Amino acid sequence: MVADLLARSRFRQNLIARRSSEIAAAYKNIRPDLPVRLSESTISRMKTGSDLKKMDGGNLTLLHLTLARLVRTGDEGEPDLLRDLRAAISFAEKVLDLASESEKPRGSSYNPNDPRHYRASDLFGDHGVDLLEQALERKDAGSFRKLAVLQQLSGNSDDARFWNHCASEADPAMQSSDGINDATAAQEAFRSGRQYLYSGQGGAAEIYLTLAASKGHADAAYVMGDLFETRGCVQEARQWFSVAKSYGHSNADARLSSPALQ
Length: 262
Hints:
InterPro entries: TPR-like_helical_dom_sf
Order of helices and strands: HHHHHHHHHHHHH
Protein name: Sel1 repeat family protein
Oligomer: single chain
């Protein structure tokens, strides 16, 4: 629901983040529990649904209020604050209901008091918890390796080395003399991202592709542009194709010039 709302609005996340503080201030007297603003990372987290169990009603309400005001920019007359608030609360409740329905019972293998487990959950949401459970309960070397890749690209080299060691113990064939580095992690993240994308798991795909692109992987940035163009998010698509072009992707310039992105 959040991704669809953002796609229909076509507003950039940095604009939404900036305007959210103004909207929160306008509602301070009638809804004091609203957050003071939305960060771009919070908006991204809500958009991908990567951590549904931590979805916050206040953030959802403020997002809806901010988008409603942006859509009506230039309209005459004062906004109906209570009407907009009712619509935003209704939206938040529906998203939270869907999140509640989608939650799965967690086994004992995931321990939120373990710092490494918590970091995986905090950074990668439900996908991080799923990887932990698959890795720990099944001794799945591939899941351990994915945790290592994601943590390496997130700058957590200690966690990356730990999970990579677990992968090697689970499957000695994964033992590597050079351990794990940004270049190999970015390539593996790109491959995993495409696999998740083709299997219809867009939220998980974005985690891998975004991290790979952050380390200069041109193909990952290009696929992200393609993904957002498919969703009708022109500005985001142009941003990612521009990143791919800056990395030297041979097809990015043609995509930026296509009528669909003008």
